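Recap slide: Damage-inducible mutagenesis protein, sequence and predicted structure.
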Amino acid sequence: MPVISPSAFAPSAANDAATPVAADLREKVRRLERAHSAQRAGQQAVSLGVPAIDALLPSNGLLTGALHEIEAGPAPSGRVASHDGAALGFAAHLLGRFGTLRPNGTLLWCRRPFGASDAPPYAAALAAWFDPARLLMVTVRRDEDLFWAMEEGLRCPGMAAVLGETRATDLTAGRRLSLAAEKSGVPALLLRGQPAPPQSVCTTRWRVASAATHSTPGLNDVGASRWRTELRRNRFGAPSVTETPTWLLEWNDEAHCLSVVPQAFHGSTRESDARLVG
């Protein structure tokens, strides 16, 4: 009988050598995709103003002419909110950043209410991120109407950015929005109250949840808003060290900017001094 050596089942040296070659090819394809995406989007990217995040994004920012998704993450209690203020605030921040490229452009916000208690965002609160006078709010009854309004808005001259609030997971509508954004150069944002499906053509996907803030010890004040932010998809960006980069961000109302909370202060907030904010 033939004798089978255990070495016959060991991976060959050729396979070992092919592994770094395949990784190198994947990285080259990734760089070509990033360059091609930037060209399609008019070579414009908007910085988030947070160097640690911008460094991972193509052209050091969020590409215009592309689709970006924001989904609400679990609250500190572990519950997934149907309408989380942190995700809404982050979406408004991105909308304001995109609006700086076209200062006179309109910001289109499309939404489908879910129940009588689902009110539109308060205009005075949105003033922290952009001039509410630039905002055009569209309310619809069906998801199909919401995607149609967004697509028409992306084709409309004078539009700076388009945002839609939805719970729908229509992949075909997502592809149409991505193509319309690419053709017009206008960024499209989808704000989801629930986790998005893994299949998507979005350029970036963010998961944002409220985080406990740090108040002054001994005082009954409310600290600055903090958001736990995950970059769950980064289609054309630089590969990160971790699979899902996560940051604890703090919003500064006076400077109107975001900053990363240092790791040393992540656990410095006592439970008695913590306040949950959106």
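Residues 264-278 have pLDDT under 50 and may be disordered.
The radius of gyration is 22 Å.
(End of recap.)
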